[in-house]
Amino acid sequence: MDLIKPEIGLIFWTALTFAILLFVLRKFAWKPILGAVGDREDSIRKALAEAENARKEMQNLQADNERILKEARAEREAMLKDARDMKNKIVSDAKELAQVEADKMIQQAQATIESEKKAAVTDIKNQVANLSLEIAEKVIKEQLSNKDKQLQLVESMLGDIKLN
Amino acid sequence: MQVSTFRAFFAILFLSFYSLGFAASKTATKDSSEGDEPFNASELIFHHIGDSHSFHVYGSDEDHFPAALTIPLPVILWTDNGLVTFMSSEFHHDVDGKVMVERKGLKFTNLHDKIYQLDAGALAVTLDKDQHATNATRPLDFSITKNVFSMFLSVALILLIFLFSARSYKKSNTNMPSGIGRFMEPIIVFIRDEVAIPNIGEHHYKRYMPFLLTLFFFIWINNVIGLIPFFPFSSNLSGNIAFTLTLAVITFVITIFSSKKYYWKHMLWMPGLPVPMKLFLAPIEIIGMFVKPIALMIRLFANITAGHVIVLSLIGLIFIFETFWVAPISVLFTLFISVIEVLVVAIQAYIFTMLSALYFGQALEEEHDH
Q: Can you give the pTM of this predicted structure?
């Protein structure tokens, strides 16, 4: 049957044609096309990886920002707290110091008052003594100028003594 | 632009099927009206799917241009007296061994589209009862037949498509194709990603890509050419056993040359089996080695030939029933089959390529892969 009897001519031409076609296409079509497709796929893969990296970097950056912000906030809190503490301390210190000073001043004032009082008392005592003497002098002078009186005095004095 | 080209292609495809019916009806009508013998469908079909030394375009053999047109093709013969070449028109459409062409002292005649060289001294071909020549032998025939012509046409088409595609990549600075290249790239990438890489593997596939791509497009374009039923297409090249035989042998040779130690070990002394089983399997595996390319050859040949036979049979129904009332049914079924054929020719090209890749992958298999 002709249908399943291969003809040598067609085998020859098919083999020859296919070989030439393979050679030409390999050199001028498949190499540039597959090369271009491969290059493009590589560049797409690279671009995707780059985008992924950029995304990660962005995330890192964002995390960093967040961290820095948190730190700043914490620092501010700490600073405020410090300031508040310091204020309290200064105020309390000042209060204490003032108390001490005031106490000291009061003590000094009291001491001064005491010494003044003592001086005043001494002075008064001296003055009273002087006054008494002067009075006594005057009285005695007056008494002694009158005999009766002198006697009266002696008598009253003696009377006092008796009473005692 | 892409879409309109595509649409035009299909329009041509469908129109051509319509015209096939028309052309077939014209010749067949003549046959049945002139001869008393009944319409012989198998003769028409076998004539169509066979090879020919001239390309019949339209009209009857008895008529002359412009009523009929047959393109002569060169006849190239290697004889005892050296190379003989002449145009097939010298036979004057004779295929019954009546017209003799004399070159270099040898007489040649065309008997059923095959060139015979008459034995020395013979003046006319004598036939036995099976229509075989008794006093003539066939010289080595390297003629540019209808199929060879069609093959050259497909090569021209393939080169045109892919050289343009390749150029469109070079022209763009982003490695992006344009025009026809944009249409072809998905197919090329498909062959690479779905055929070559899964079957051959990441490491070796690059070496086989040019072969697989060339094979796929060579078969596919020739299949499509076979589907278009008018000049300069309408040949049945990929449904010719010589064509499929050659491609299968090329695949076989590449498989053998790519094979590694493990391929032969696996075939001749199957590892991991008891000895009697190994002895039993070895001949089966050796037969299998040859059956694979033979199956490739027969699958493509049978599928494409069957497609042609079905279309011609459906059109032939009109002449078998001798009524044009069958025509709408014939045309409808032909259209249906043709649409399926459009799929089948692509699938057959894909299967041939796929299996070739699979065989290469098996030949390249390493020990640890199993």
A: 0.75
